[in-house]
Amino acid sequence: MTIPSIIKPIATVLVIHLILPASAETLESNTGWQNEVAIGIESEPTYAGSDNNKTEADFDFKAVHTNENGHQWLLSLGEIGYTRKVSEDTSITALLEYEEGREAEEEDLLKGLESVDDTVELQLSTTRRFGNSYGYAVLQYDLLDRGKGLVWFLGAAHDYELSDRLGVRLGLDISGADAEHMNTEFGISAAEASATGFSQYKPSSGLKSVTLSAESTYELNRNWSLLGEVEVENYLSEAADSPLIADYGSDVTYEVGIALRYQF
Description:
By secondary structure, the protein is an alpha+beta fold. The chain has a single domain, classed as monomeric porin ompg (Porin, Beta Barrel). It has helices spanning 3-19, 179-186, 190-196, 237-240, 243-246; strands at residues 32-45, 53-66, 72-76, 79-85, 90-99, 119-130, 133-142, 150-161, 166-177, 206-219, 224-235, 252-263. Strands 1-2-3-4-5-6-7-8-9-10-11-12 form a twelve-stranded antiparallel barrel. The longest helix has 17 residues, at 3-19.
């Protein structure tokens, strides 16, 4: 992984940030329940660092309850969490999240590697808004001790209102992980090397990736919206040096999704 490959997504965000107009001040969320159902299609890498994508249907349900102090409870498919507003612009969130594992049968390249079990992760985060921009820090920990270890994220995003109906959010984050996580995602044990022909590889803790994201929302009417999302992830250092990426995958991967959402 070279320095220019890190600079490119950062420069892209800065350029687009200068071109797009900023949106009006974000309105306060209404109190009570806000619910939504979304159905769509997404394409994502078959494993972290794969140069092959799998495309499948995606369905989600989300319910958010906001009280008079701005605190929120969140319930969705695979997530339950609580967000507490500590000031007008700052909040903290605790979230339990289902994390899908990795099956060796998902791709021929993975045959001979150990499968990664599904798990539940605890996610703790803090967010600070600056008008239509915000920064955040996240810690993510594998509660069931199934190899996902500890991951951290530092990121920022900005919301743009391009019209009364169209909004865009651009984001950039950098992540790192402990040795347990890096070995689960990118390591090759001696037994796996013998079974597959991969070179043995044991990464240490360190930086994992830089991710550039763009999300769009187009309101069809009061209840219906079209959603779109694109993510470009650039793997770094210990992750990028894994045989799964350096020899057979790609240090830059893409994820694309589109959905129709109904809010009530």
